[in-house]
What we know:
This protein is mainly alpha-helical. The chain is built from twelve helices and two strands, in the order ααααααββαααααα. The chain is globular, with a radius of gyration of 23 Å.
Amino acid sequence: MGVTPLIWIITIAVTIAFFVFEFFAHVRKPHEPSIAESARWSAFYIGLALLFGVGIGVFSGWTYGGEYFAGYLTEKALSIDNLFVFLIIMTGFAVPKIYQQKVLMIGIVIALIMRGAFIAVGAALIENFSWIFYIFGALLLFLAYRQAFSHGESDPANGKFMTFVRRVLPVSEDYNEDKLTVRKNGKRFVTPMLLVIIAIGFIDLVFAVDSIPAIYGLTNEAYIVFTANAFALMGLRQLYFLIGGLLERLVYLAQGLAVILAFIGVKLVFHALHVNELPFINGGEPLLWVPEIPIWFSLLFIAATVAVATFLSLRKTRNDRQKKDRKTFEGEKVIHAPED
C-alpha cells in the first residue's frame, strides 16, 4: 500500500486531535447528550469514516478500499457489542447519566491505545511468521463458539477481577461528582468512578483480543487495521446515547458476531494453508488448491450477517412485546368481566 512514516504521523496526530476536541467540546462539562446532539455527531463520524474509505479506494485502489470497508464494518459491529457491555457496567455501578460521557470517553481512549499496541504486535508477527494465521484462525473460531453460546450471564461489575480490585483498593460507597479519589477522615479512598474505569479498561483488553485478529483476517495492511479501528471508535460515545434503548433489543447481535468471527476464522485458516510454511503440513509447501476468499465476498457476507441479525432481533423483540401486550389485555378482560 506504500504508507510513508509521514502519513502515519499525520494520521495519528489527526486521530488524537479528534479525541482532544471531543473532550473539550462535549465531555469536559458533565451533561447527558440529547438525542439530536447524539444523532448529529454519530452521522458526522460515520460519514467521515465512509469518506475516508472512498479516499483509500480512489488513491490506493479498490482492493484496499474494500478491505477498509469490510474491516470498518466488522469493527463497528464489534464496537456495538462493546457498547452493550459498557451498558451493563454502567448499570452495575449505577453511574449517574451526566458522568457517563466521561467514563465512555476514557474507555474509548483506552480501547484505542490497547488496539494500537495489538496492531503493532500483530503486524510484526504477520511480517515474520506466516504460521500466525493458524493461531489467529483458531482463536477466532474459539471466540465465535464462546460468543454464540454465551448468554450474557456474567456481570463485569461483580466478576472475579473486580472483586480482586475491591480487595486491593479502599473504595468509598458514593460517587463524588466525577472525581476518582476522595479523602474521608484523613484517609484517601477511591470512588466507584475509578472502579468503573478499571472495569472498562479490562473489558477493552478482552475485546482487543477479539477485534485485532478479526480485522487481520480481512487485510494485512496495518494502516487499514488502525484507521478502521480508529473510525469505528470515533462517535461510539454518541452512538451509546443514541441507541441505548436499541441495544437491549439486539438480542441476536452476539450470534451474528459469532457468525462473522467464525467466517473470518475460516478465511484465516484458508489463507494460512495457502501460504503454508509449516513442515508437518504438506511437507512445508503451500496448498495452492485451497481457495482464497475474495474481499468483495467478505464485505457482502459481513454486511448481510449484520443486517439479518438486526432484522431478526427487532422482529423477535416486537413479537415478544405484542405477546406481552396481548396477555396483559386478556388478563384485564378477565378481571373486569361482569359477574353472572
